[in-house]
User: What shape does this take?
Amino acid sequence: MPVITINGPIGCGSVTVGQMVSQQLNISFVDRLVFTQAARLVGTPVGALIDKEQRVVRFRDRLGRFVQTMLERSAVAGVSGEPYFGRGIETLPPETFAELSGETTPPSQIDDKAFLEATTKVVNDLHSKGDVVIIGRGANVILANTPGVVHVGLLAPIAMRVETMMQREHLDREEAEVYVRELDEAWVTFFRKIYKASPTDPSRYHMMLNMEKIQAKTAAEVIVHACRDLES
Assistant: This one.
């Protein structure tokens, strides 16, 4: 009944490694489902919870406002094919479109206590069912003192993570570096505010893996081996 939490900054491969681990152990994989379930408990759109986690990310905010401005200009001019919608528009996350259409609750209106309680309940429910890899969402803090859970931290230098985001999000180098740095800031700020902890504190993990030094496949194999050792 393995339960594994994997945490790491943007671009270090947490999702890729987590999926590999879940496949090798034949267990469930959970990423944003935590927020989906928590959103139902809080009674707010899932995009609002994600925005709360990433609320200091200014690059996406600027891009969102840029798109909104272009939409407004197109509507006024009666232009159906807006030339501004080129590289970058396909990388906008669904919650940005929901925000533009007025479907999300402003993050300031989501109570921190309610957010923490809902997320904690969802993570504990996942743990009680077992056989799951949980990516991020403070699961390592929520399950910190829970026996039988393996907590894994991933890390990688910013240069490597910038390269990853350039390829994945189709950004140029300057945009990718701004995005990575601001999302790093959001990650640390979110953890400190909600969980009163640092996401980079090594004492909160059974192991920390440097993804600059090993491939995702190797990282997954190390985690699987650790889980089997724990079970035995």
